[in-house]
Design brief:
Blueprint (H helix, E strand, L loop, with lengths): L5 E4 L4 H4 L3 H11 L3 E4 L7 H11 L2 E6 L2 H6 L1 H11 L3 E4 L13 H17 L3 E5 L7 E2 L2 E2 H8 L6 E3 L2 H6 L4 H7 L6 E4 L1 E3 L26 E3 L8 H10 L4 E4 L10 H15 L2
């Protein structure tokens, strides 16, 4: 199997990052991560962030930036993250009024074209990071597929989140293969339980000691500690010509801190990503 470089989505360790930005990134590097994906830079200049990453020796591969924030000032947002050295910039999440089935979903489609052009101007590529609500069908077609069909691949690529693909009712392995050649960055996220109204609260619910028991409340888990078949997913990523895999855990679980969860994830990946 191809050995993929592995990054951590820094939202996973936001509680540590807010107290010690540089020290947290150093610890991430020491765990064995090759890169980082930003979810905010805590008031630091692009030059400061770039310097920290270069000093520590991690690649700043990408950044999650809210859709509305990017639309309000695409030029300066793209300039900022391109100066850090990011190759990708990502629409991470849609608030309810922009989700499929709402009147503003078409604004997301048209906005992605604008943002894709702005990203291209600054030497980056725009990605879209899905949740499960994009697996709502519109005229028999998933909204996520509509988005990728209506925005050309030169303006928008995928950052498929394998947890949310699964929760949305599809096989993550097959969905990664579906977007072969358009899936440069892939999110690896594990979970137990079933879809519920509490998923977006990002609360860990430790209702059971059995990490493989599906008859429990939804809970995020470190990679390799839940239901996902990551050997199959990584084989699909190889087929799809994915460049980076990114670990994300929205909320810590099993009594571990967010940093402990991040270490559990990379330690597991070292056993299969080789």
């Amino acid at each position: 199997m191809k050995k993929f470089p592995v990054a951590l989505q820094l939202y996973s360790v936001r509680d540590f990052l807010s107290n010690d930005f540089e020290g947290t990134i150093q610890k991430i590097k020491d765990m064995g991560y090759d890169g980082v994906e930003f979810a905010g830079t805590y008031g630091k200049t692009a030059e400061e962030v770039k310097s920290i990453c270069q000093k520590i020796g991690v690649t700043a591969i990408s950044a999650h930036v809210a859709f509305n924030e990017m639309m309000q000032d695409p030029e300066n947002i793209m300039k900022y993250y391109s100066e850090i050295g990011c190759k990708y910039i990502v629409i991470p999440y849609l608030t309810e009024e922009y989700r499929p089935g709402s009147s503003k979903f078409n604004e997301v489609i048209e906005g992605a074209k604008v943002l894709g052009e702005a990203a291209k101007k600054h030497g980056m590529k725009l990605l879209y990071h899905n949740h499960d609500f994009e697996f709502k069908k519109i005229d028999g077609e998933y909204a996520l597929d509509i988005l990728y069909n209506k925005v050309s691949a030169d303006l928008l690529q995928t950052e498929l989140d394998t947890c949310w693909v699964n929760v949305g009712g599809e096989n993550p392995t097959e969905y990664v293969k579906k977007y072969a050649g358009r899936a440069p960055v892939l999110h690896l996220k594990d979970f137990i339980g079933q879809k519920s109204d509490k998923m977006y609260a990002l609360i860990g619910l430790d209702d059971t000691n059995d990490t493989k028991n599906t008859a429990v409340a939804f809970e995020f888990r470190p990679v390799g500690q839940g239901l996902q078949d990551f050997v199959s997913i990584l084989n699909a990523a190889k087929y799809a010509e994915t460049e980076w895999i990114v670990v994300e855990q929205d909320s810590p679980s099993c009594g571990n801190t967010s940093m402990e969860c991040a270490k559990m994830s990379i330690d597991y990946l070292k056993t299969i990503n080789k």
